[in-house]
Specification:
Strand order of the largest sheet: 2-8-7-6-5-3-4
Radius of gyration: 21 Å
Bound molecules: 4'-deoxy-4'-aminopyridoxal-5'-phosphate, glutamic acid
Strand content: 5-15%
Oligomer: single chain
Shape: globular
Structural class: alpha/beta
């Protein structure tokens, strides 16, 4: 009966990160000893002070629908956070709280894109961008990068990708999956191009802003001429290990925020009340409260880079943020490993799952067919064991 489903859903691909995580779970249930490095999710528990805030919210009976765009005091905390961390002034009418940054992104696509509008996606890009854009009838325009440019696009590449149909540029910094961080100068370069194209909007996905090992996160909205046309997306999933609590938010021009609120009002009615209350506490806390997680990710980044660097055929950049490595493994293409022909990154990821019992994600899903993504949001023992197993089978 699947042909009775809408064309919309039939043409959508399944999230590769979630699919790989489901497959790993299934194999584990069958008794296989799988190490899951596919899903981008901190392995820390939510810090106690945030849990306490949620418990208090339950006792205080935060059980009704919240305002569609989020509680006023949460939006105030977000506004303060934008000022404190990003030097950005967003008033309360410019902020919308949603059920995860993923929903924030979907809201923006549905509110901003008309059929045939082009959205520039520097590749590799986060797995869901392309399908979210397509769902809104936009056209993803991938701009490939490679390990030689640390997986970042240049101003000249951006200029060359722009057409009269270009509506938006979407990117994440720190980047999922490459871990690359755009510097102030690099963003200035992109902004300079965009200043000549006043009708192009920017979605700046800053969900990994705190997981940045070189420090000095830069928001493109703060660069001259960019504020009015940038939608700054953020959330608490990564920095506060709150993935399952599903809170994300945007700061944007008031008319964009208003449209997202209208859209959300017909979709979800707004985000979970208890999680919103807890998010106030999370965002009001000094960053020092979560520094231990950032430090751990930094240590693990160094550990996994060192270990993978010993494997012949793994070509690595040095990720400066997020919690992924994105090795180029194209040197294995055309080779046969233990009877399995490796033609592409998907074959390679599947091979690692079946022969090494290690779950990773194919770079194909992120718009780069030469790489695989490995999440190092896992314990040091798991990282050591996973790389040992990978080394043994390649
Ligand atoms: N953007 C990026 C770059 C991500 O890696 C993720 C991963 N979850 C999201 C957005 C969505 O985050 P969430 O919906 O959990 O807030
Ligand atoms: N963003 C995470 C990842 O890239 C979580 C999975 C998802 O939301 O798709 O793995």
């Amino acid at each position: 009966m699947s042909n009775h489903l809408s064309e919309r859903i039939n043409s959508m691909s399944t999230s590769a990160t979630l699919a790989m995580a489901a497959k790993a779970r299934e194999l584990r249930n069958q008794g296989k000893d799988i190490i899951g490095l596919s899903l981008g999710e901190p392995d820390f528990n939510i810090p106690d002070f945030i849990k306490e805030a949620a418990k208090i919210a339950i006792d205080e009976n935060y059980s009704s629908y919240s305002p569609v765009d989020g509680y006023v005091d949460l939006k105030q905390a977000i506004s303060n956070k934008f000022k404190r961390d990003n030097n950005l002034e967003y008033g309360l009418n410019q902020i919308v709280v949603s059920t995860g940054a993923k929903q924030s992104l979907a809201n923006v696509a549905m509110c901003m894109l008309n059929k045939g509008d082009e959205v520039i996606l520097p590749a590799p890009y986060w797995v869901s961008y392309s399908d979210i854009v397509k769902l809104a009838e936009g056209i993803p325009v991938e701009v490939p990068t490679s390990i030689e440019t640390d997986f970042k696009i240049t101003a000249a590449q951006l200029e060359a990708a722009i057409t009269p149909k270009t509506k938006m540029l979407w990117f994440s910094s720190p980047c999922n999956p490459s871990g690359s961080v755009y510097s102030q100068e690099e963003l200035e370069g992109l902004a300079e191009v965009l200043r000549n194209h006043p009708n192009i909007y920017v979605v700046s996905d800053e969900i990994y802003e705190h997981i940045n090992f070189r420090g000095g996160h830069v928001s493109i909205a703060g660069i001259e001429g960019m504020y009015d046309r940038t939608i700054t997306v953020n959330g608490v999933s990564k920095a506060f290990a709150m993935t399952g609590w599903r809170i994300g938010y945007i700061g944007a021009a008031d008319w964009i925020a208003k449209a997202c609120t209208k859209f959300q009002g017909q979709n979800t009615s707004g985000a979970n009340a208890i999680a919103q209350r807890a998010t106030i506490t999370a965002l009001e806390a000094p960053v020092s409260k979560i520094q231990f997680m950032i430090d751990k990710f930094h240590e693990r980044r160094d550990l996994i880079l060192g270990l993978l660097g010993e494997i012949e055929g793994f070509n690595l950049n040095v990720p400066e943020g997020a919690f992924y490595v994105f090795p180029d493994i194209s040197s294995f293409f055309g080779k046969t490993l233990n009877g399995t022909k490796i033609e592409n990154a998907s074959d390679f990821a599947l091979y690692l799952l079946e022969h090494a019992n290690v779950a990773t994600v194919t770079g194909q899903a992120f718009g780069n067919p030469n790489c695989i993504r490995i999440s190092y949001a896992a314990s040091e023992d798991e990282i050591r064991e996973a790389v040992k197993r990978i080394k043994a089978v390649v």
